[in-house]
Amino acid sequence: MTELFEKGRKPPKFAAVPNHIAIVMDGNGRWANERGLTRTQGHIAGEAALLEVVAGAIEAGVSHITAYAFSTENWKRSPDEVRFLMGYNKEVLRRRRDQLNDWDVRIRWAGRAPKLWPSVISELRAAEKLTAKNTTLTLTMAVNYGGRQELVDAMNAISEKVASGKLKPGSLTQKSIAKELYIPDMPDVDLFVRSSGEKRTSNFLPWQSSYAEYLFMDEYWPDFTKETLWKAISLYQTRQRRFGAAVDAPLN
Length: 252
Ligand code: IPE
Ligand code: IPE
Ligand code: MG
What we know:
Elements: E1 20-24, H1 28-33, H2 39-60, E2 64-71, H3 79-102, E3 105-110, H4 118-130, E4 137-145, H5 147-163, H6 174-178, E5 191-194, E6 213-216, H7 226-237
The chain binds 3-methylbut-3-enyl trihydrogen diphosphate (2 copies) and magnesium ion.
The site of one 3-methylbut-3-enyl trihydrogen diphosphate has 10 residues, from helix 1.
């Protein structure tokens, strides 16, 4: 798959590349059903898109990609689909970790353990261990992740620290809350991309994306390529990020 870095497919020159892109990889089921295939076949087709996008992100100079692979709400799907997704996440990690390691990608996991298959957790841990020292790009896989649940888990951890005297009541800050999130040192999201035309966030990274630029793209996830990612980065460059500040510049 080193052909993913083939000549002749180069990103445009970007003036400002987002440091952290969050991606809701959505539309696998519709992509498949529109082709007369089963939803499962759509998930299978999504694997190549993820690898493409990671390669394209490396070429563009992006440092962090966080990919939504399975939400805490996805347990509502049919037992067959849940079983498939669990098994498939495990397989993809095992099949791709060496390749990602060769690309100097650090793999991390954001999510919670309860309910998640232990074999998926051990695959995530193995990938994290193998790639821990890599620095070119951090690929965080959000598996059994839910934004509200992440905040609930953080608040429970904080309440225990208060109860045991490790934290003073009333002393919380944004920093001390961020410390209790699944990946405390995850940088803020600059660009939040969702594929498949749905215009909602579905509980993905609410704390980390509070000042992100949002982009909803029509392509189904299996149709996503490097070029789609580069288009997203180009659109990001046209946004003016002000973070609440303002510049007074009247036109004469
Ligand atoms: C995203 O595609 C993959 C996961 C949620 C695991 P979907 O499976 O949600 O596909 P659609 O949205 O039904 O087309
Ligand atoms: C969000 O997509 C979760 C992932 C992509 C893993 P969903 O397809 O589950 O979200 P909803 O149900 O459309 O909000
Ligand atoms: Mg969906």
